UniProtKB/TrEMBL annotation, chain A:
Official protein name in the record: Transketolase
Coiled coil location: none
Region (Disordered): 1-23
Native source species: Streptomyces rubiginosohelvolus
UniProt domain Transketolase N-terminal: residue ranges: 40-227
Pfam families per record: Transketolase_N
Amino acid composition bias (Low complexity), ranges on this chain: 1-16
UniProt-listed InterPro entries: THDP-binding (IPR029061), Transketolase_N (IPR005474)
Length: 245, 300
């Protein structure tokens, strides 16, 4: 079972400002601050629901614990189209919502691909596809080497990003290595040029992962999948959303 | 006598016992050598299999958690094949780590061009913040590795089967050392090229500098040596792609009238097998070839 992360850890110094109460219904407005257009409904953002459920109910990380060695890590590997990610981070108080309208401008920390040195709460910079999953494998290995077996590591990739061979190097290693702390969320909007005959989950399952496929818009189904026990094995959650085309 | 790679394995294995932050990440190469250390430190000696993108990415991921990773395989598969991982997973993420390569430019000539990486240092030159060590002896490799393990920066250690007869005291921070002094010019010998450079310049009135840490480049030392000679004529002899350091040498000499000759491995594929000595001769890096080109460059 996982903890919610609505409140900052009370024992932190420099008492951070009280967090706004995050509200999923606020996200379209936050995204519109970046896109400048209300026409981009949440459904246009394939990652939005899964990101929300992760940050709101699953990940044990808050603005006060972004440097805590024991925090859960979320690595956005599919860095393209990060508006939903920024909106969810801002909604949870990782940075000021006032930064959102500057999206993509010279002085803004919020680029069209995130940079971990610029975005509070971002664990990695991404944009070039296929880097997040190997980095996540290394993060789990690094935590384990320090005896930190409690933190969970999540990485989000896209079904088209899965084309990159580096992912398959990581998938093939993480299963046999039994990296239980590793979790891969695949957002599947059927955008891979050649598709995945036989399904995406089967690629993970055949490499020794636990793998489940769920409706990527159903918050309860996502939550259930994200919190499925998977002793001794990494977990892949394939979240299917509307096809891109 | 152990090779630099043997010494790397024994030194890193020992350092794993002493330094809890240290990890070694492998892609099958040298896995046998690290087997005892892996038994003692199963969580800090990781072999990902023959997967070099994962090798570099996983090493960088460990660094994200505060570990000090040593990432090791042959130079071709460490720097060239996963170059974007080196660029982004270490550089763009702004984490430190130690890349230790073996086989270099011509260590296994019978293996052919697939196992030669003369362009590795030139590739790293396109990136910011990499320290590059090119030791010329196992003792030097050990000293530079120990130094690198104590730091937090990005370090490339280029090991080779070619080595000098004697070790010299080396340190990343101490700059190039003066081996000989002369008036007609300055010859910079990088790592394992020193013995051949000394043989080639025997009886010539030139300064010989010895360089094991080539990035950052010791501009002050080169300026000092070149400025003390009659003319700022500088030859760089490197065991990798010819001319790799010509640009940084030129920048070091910007305020002096100067000429720079870059000697090293030729760009053209030899498509020959054979022995290392044959390849050194083919690239003009044997004492005779070096002497011919150095005397041809220097003014009478």
């Amino acid at each position: 079972m996982t903890n919610t992360t609505a409140a900052p850890a009370p024992d932190r110094q420099a008492a951070p400002a009280p967090l706004p109460s995050p509200d999923f219904r606020d996200l379209p407005r936050l995204i519109a601050l970046m896109t400048g257009a209300e026409k981009h409904a949440p459904a246009a953002h394939s990652t939005l629901d899964a990101l929300w459920v992760l940050y709101n109910r699953v990940l044990r990380v808050t603005p006060a614990t972004v440097d805590d060695p024991g925090r859960d890590r979320f690595l956005l590997s599919k860095g393209h189209g990060p508006m939903a990610y920024y909106a969810v981070l801002a909604a949870h108080g990782f940075f000021d919502k006032a930064l959102l309208p500057g999206f993509g401008s010279y002085d803004s920390p919020l680029g069209h691909h995130p940079d971990r040195l610029l975005v509070p709460g971002a664990e990695i910079g991404s944009g070039s596809l296929g880097h997040g999953l190997p980095l996540a494998v290394g993060t789990v290995l690094g935590l384990r080497a320090q005896g930190l077996t409690d933190p969970r590591v999540w990485v989000l990739i896209g079904d088209a990003e899965l084309d990159e061979g580096s992912n398959h190097e990581a998938i093939a290693h993480a299963g046999p290595a039994g990296l239980e702390q590793l979790h891969t969320l695949v957002i599947d909007n059927a955008s891979a040029t050649h598709g995945w005959p036989g399904g995406i989950a089967s690629r993970f399952a055949s490499a020794g992962w636990d793998a489940v496929t769920v409706d990527g818009r159903d918050h309860e189904a996502l939550y259930e999948a994200f919190t499925t026990p998977h002793p001794g094995r990494p977990l892949a959650v394939v979240a299917r959303v509307e096809p891109k085309n | 006598m152990d090779t630099m790679r043997d010494r790397f394995i024994s030194t890193a294995s020992q350092l794993l016992d002493e330094e809890p932050r240290l990890a070694v990440v492998l892609a099958d190469i040298s896995a046998d050598g690290f087997a005892p250390a892996r038994r003692t430190h199963p969580d800090r000696v990781i072999n990902v299999g023959i997967r070099e993108q994962l090798l570099v990415g996983a090493g960088a991921g460990m660094a994200l958690t505060g570990m000090r990773p040593i990432v090791h395989t042959f130079a071709s598969f460490l720097v060239e094949r996963p170059f974007e991982q080196v660029k982004l997973d270490f550089g763009h993420q702004d984490v430190g780590g130690i890349l230790v390569s073996a086989a270099g430019s011509y260590d296994w000539p019978a293996g052919g061009f697939t196992h030669m990486a003369p362009g590795d240092v030139a590739l790293l030159d396109t990136l910011d913040g990499w320290t590059v060590h090119v030791p010329g002896h196992p003792d030097e490799a050990e000293a530079l590795l120990r130094e690198a393990v104590g730091g937090d920066d990005r370090v490339y250690v280029r090991l080779s089967l070619q080595e000098n007869r004697e070790a010299r005291p080396v340190s990343g921070g101490s700059g190039f050392s003066v081996v000989r002094e002369g008036r007609r010019g300055t010859v910079i010998a990088v790592g394992p090229m020193l013995d051949n450079v000394l043989a080639a310049t025997e009886g010539l009135d030139v300064t010989v500098l010895y360089a094991t840490t080539v990035r950052p480049f010791d501009a002050v030392g080169v300026r000092r040596a070149a400025g003390a000679a009659a003319t700022a004529d500088v030859v760089v002899v490197e065991p990798y792609l010819a001319g790799t350091s010509s640009a940084v040498a030129g920048e070091a000499l910007l305020n002096l009238p100067h000429r720079v000759l870059g000697l090293g491995v030729g760009r053209a594929e030899l498509r020959r097998y054979g022995q290392m000595e044959e390849h050194l001769t083919a690239h003009g890096l044997d004492p005779r070839g070096l002497r011919e080109r150095i005397t041809g460059f220097l003014r009478p």
